Every structure is written in C-alpha cells, then in structure tokens.
Amino acid sequence: DGSPPASQRPTAYIMVLINQEVKTKAFEHDVGMAVENIILTALEEGVGSCCFGSVDRGKLRKRFNIPKKYLINLVIALGYPNESPVEEPFENSVKYWKDKKGLLHVPKRKLKDILHRNVITSEHTSAV
C-alpha cells in the first residue's frame, strides 16, 4: 500500500490548520512561508520532511476532534532519513523509482527551465 514499516515511519507530524474565520485572501502565501521555514529548520537539524496535501481530511478531523472552522491545509511528516535519493533529469514524468540496488531516483527539472530572469521567453511558454 506504499506505507513504510513501523520502524521507518515519521517520528512526528504537523497538521497545518487554517482558521477560516480570520484567514486572509492570501493565506496560501502565509502557509507557504511558514511551511518553508519548518522544512528548512528541520533540515538544518538533520530531520527530513515530506508535505502531504492528499490526506483523508474527514478522518483527521474526526480523530483529532478538529472544529469545522479550521481548514486542514497540509500535513508535514518529519523524521530522520534512511536513504539518500539521487536527482535525475526530468523527462515528462515526476514519478520516483528505485533501481535494483534500492536507490531512490527522483526526477527534477533544471533550474534554467523553471527560473526566469527579467523576461519569459517563448521556449518557456509551452505546456509541460
């Protein structure tokens, strides 16, 4: 089912909740900045992280008795990494894979393909 064995599961989770009664129009920016700081601080301490947006919000709401006024935005899993993934050039798929030795390969786009300086050229306007 894709779940790691108990010995390899995250040691902590952070659930990012949005109070819908006071959220701003740009709350996504606030969430992004806060989550980035959590991830970078964890990394500095040797703790890995993974953000999940595809979670069973109903189950989480019930399990943790979360009032309806809170939107469950993200879940951040934290733990100590036990593998060292290898970055691979992106070739039409972001699907990760493991090789015969069990090494995790992660496709990534090149910075020149996602960063633009002063202008976006026509080569960057086609759909990926």
Automatic annotation (TrEMBL):
Keyword Oxidoreductase found: yes
Alphabetized GO MF terms: oxidoreductase activity
Domain Nitroreductase, residue spans: 18-80
InterPro entries, sorted: Nitroreductase, Nitroreductase-like, Put_nitroreductase_C_bac
Keyword Oxidoreductase appears in the UniProt entry: yes
Keywords: Oxidoreductase
Pfam families per record: Nitroreductase
Family: Belongs to the nitroreductase family.
Protein name: Nitroreductase domain-containing protein
